[in-house]
Amino acid sequence: MNDSTQNILICGIGGQGVVLAGRIISLAAFESGMDIKTSEVHGMSQRGGSVSTHIRFGKKIFSPLIPENGATAILSFDIYETLRYTGSFANKNTIIVSSNDGKTPAWTSKTKNDTIVNNFADIYSIASLLKDNFKSLTLLEDKRIAESIGNAKVSNIILIGALSVFTDIKENIWLKTIEKNVPEKTADLNIKAFLKGRASL
Amino acid sequence: MLNKTLDFSKLLLTGNEAIALGGAKAGVYTAVGYPGTPSSEILPYLSKLNSGAIVNWSINEKTALEIAIGTSIGYKRAMFTTKHVGLNVASDPLMTLALTGVRGGLVVVTADDPGMHSSQNEQDNRLYSKFAKIPMFEPSDSQECLDFTSKAFDVSEDFDTPVILRTVTRISHSRSVAVFSGKFPSDTERKNTENTYKKDIEKFVMVPVYARKRHKAALERLKRLIDFSNGSGLNSVEYNDKEFGIITSGISYQYAKEIAPFASFLKLSFSYPLPDLLIKDFVKNVKNIVIIEELEPFIQNETASLGIELKGKEYFPQDGEFNPDIVLSGLKKAGFFKGKKTADKEKNAGKDMRTNISLSNPLPPRFPALCSGCPHTSVFYALKKLKVPVMGDIGCYTLGALPPLNAMDSCISMGLAFGAAQGLSITKSSHKKTVGIMGDSTFFHSGITSLIDAKYNNAKFTAVILDNSTTAMTGGQDHPGTGKNLSFNQSVSTKIDIKKIIEGIGIDEIYAIDPYDYNETFKTLKKALDSNNLNVVITGRPCVLYPKKIDTGKKFKISDGCTGCDLCMQTGCPSIRLPYGKTGAANPVPFIDSSCIGCSICRDICVFNFIEEIP
């Protein structure tokens, strides 16, 4: 791994748009002419469950998987899931976390005390725990920003916008890539969302 | 989808897409398979390329390979795709195809799943190449997937042999840059355009007298393939520091290059038969050599049989999927990093930060779950209440074995359920009637024969077919019950009726149920279980994801007064959840979130009538 390599880890829950976000970020890097490898999740991901996508780009990439602690940026769609991936964290990480309410797991037994969701700290305490421990962490108000432009569904593009600040990819390539990869009639909305996210940091 | 947005010559492709493109480039005439993670995306992508190939799902892997064999006998190129365990199903034709050889090139793509992301075992299909005496390619990225698939067809024809292209999840589902040059050959440009059929019984009729000759021919072929392995340039040596050498193949090569770029490498792309001369040369020139390979010590045992004892599994695990960190740890044990700087400094900093986080409770587990509104839910909920032994099978519905449903007692192989149900029922080890349960695609794949056997042998169990009109777990592929396929749309004549098959077997006690009606589902299952006959229960609701997302338009909520008894949560429906955060209540009350699609199963299950439709 040479110094210019960027390793982006996206984490969240199946169905939150992790795969689409990964697609857009990797295509933007590809369009910039860099060598790139990604590792996606298929199959089980659509049935709920914790998902992550690895994206690596730079001069020459070998492994599609990010080595432990090797992420240069982490984009998390779920505040609780962020904790699951702390193994990828290192000092200099950029960490962007959606401040959306965490989605509790599909089912947790109320008969086994150790897995009672009810006993978990609320997301506000998790947020402050994360902030206390990771100085480079941004809790992005993606939901509020999305609502301000009138569509809650563009949350993931707002998160990409925030992340884009930390990459070497040029703004026009981001815009071109987003335009090509979202449904045509939502292109303007998504570009607005991206720019809002990009300006939010 | 990628073609729409990108220049066709340089692409960002998954390994599976690149394999499809390589097949199209080679002018593949027939491409067939049965869906299975991580191989499922190859055929749909090939179909979309419009290369002129006939691309279709088959009923199972054995039939698919047989179709490929027929195409090859007809002088055309054929590709068969499967997940690792699917090759077991196709192994009968494979083992003898290895003797007959081919006419048109025939490539078997096996996608293995180290780490079992979505599989019941992690068998290493490289062993099939040795077992069957079939040459094997192992690509390590998408460019190689493209190039090797195309090359494999040439090798197949040049050496009169089927060829295995072996990939793994981390190759099939990773994207990397691949450059495509050339074009898809037109019909007349395809190799072996000969189309006058000729008999050749000494080659294709494997009765003992001819098979003995063909076995000798296969052994001869293997010798010629060793020369090819040494001299084709596919297996390559990169000399760097001659103190440290790595022999590796496939994805392990990429991890090793990442971790130890200073080492010398012997990269095996054509990994069976092994290039004996290249290996001997490498061993002569490099001082400390380790073999890095996921799963079985395949290269290690093969080199040992050449009289070269090298270490590998002494440092690396024989189970699970590798990653850069596992490779680093193995290479450290092998002494590759003595006195060298690694990324450990950074690492420790990370570890320190992690230990700062202390949670009073562990993270909530996220089991994969049946979807909101999944029609399987009510059947498993009812089976759990009926407390019967349930022989299960492979599909989304295997999730019915997990908590909270806990209503399946076995999952071993595709189509196991009815055979195992017969076998279990005759032991009388349970006083309850046995249930065998499988999906529609699995029934076509390998459930029909065991149901015939059950009728033939006078078995007494209840067979449940969860007919959701798709192959759901692998992404919604068509099968004979949908009547559609990659190359054609539905017509009356192509749709095969499961009920008619069962009637044809001579089973007359058949129940059709609507699984969205929980009370009826429970009653019917109970009736079928109370009857002492072999009987079949077929559910009739489509999958909520495929072919299109289903939303009934209804929404449900939990009304005031709910005491948090947990019954509705025992369905495992992902839309019924508890809030995060301490509420102080002994029995927190769940809520139904906006992902509810209105199946109404939970309303029927709530005995206190606290779940109501939102008007």
Summarize this structure briefly.
The complex is a heterodimer of chains A (201) and B (615). With 201 residues, chain A is of the alpha/beta class.
Description:
- The complex is a heterodimer of chains A (201) and B (615).
- Chain A has seven helices and six strands.
- Chain A has 201 residues and is of the alpha/beta class.
- Chain A has a single domain, classed as Pyruvate-ferredoxin Oxidoreductase, domain 3 (3-Layer(aba) Sandwich).
- In chain A, strands 2-3-1-4-5-6 form a six-stranded mixed sheet, sandwiched between helices.
- In chain A, 57% of the residues are buried.
- About 4% of the residues of chain A have low confidence.
- In chain B, the strands form six sheets. A seven-stranded mixed sheet of chain B has the order 3-2-4-5-7-6-12, with helices on both faces. Chain B has a five-stranded parallel sheet with strand order 14-15-16-18-17, sandwiched between helices.
- Chain B is an alpha/beta fold and 615 residues long.
- Chain B contains 22 helices and 22 strands.
- In chain B, helix 3 links the parallel strand 2 and strand 3.
- Chain B folds into four domains: 230 residues, 3-Layer(aba) Sandwich (Rossmann fold); 98 residues, Rossmann fold (3-Layer(aba) Sandwich); 164 residues, Thiamin diphosphate (ThDP)-binding fold, Pyr/PP domains (Rossmann fold), CATH 3.40.50.970; 65 residues, Alpha-Beta Plaits (2-Layer Sandwich), CATH 3.30.70.
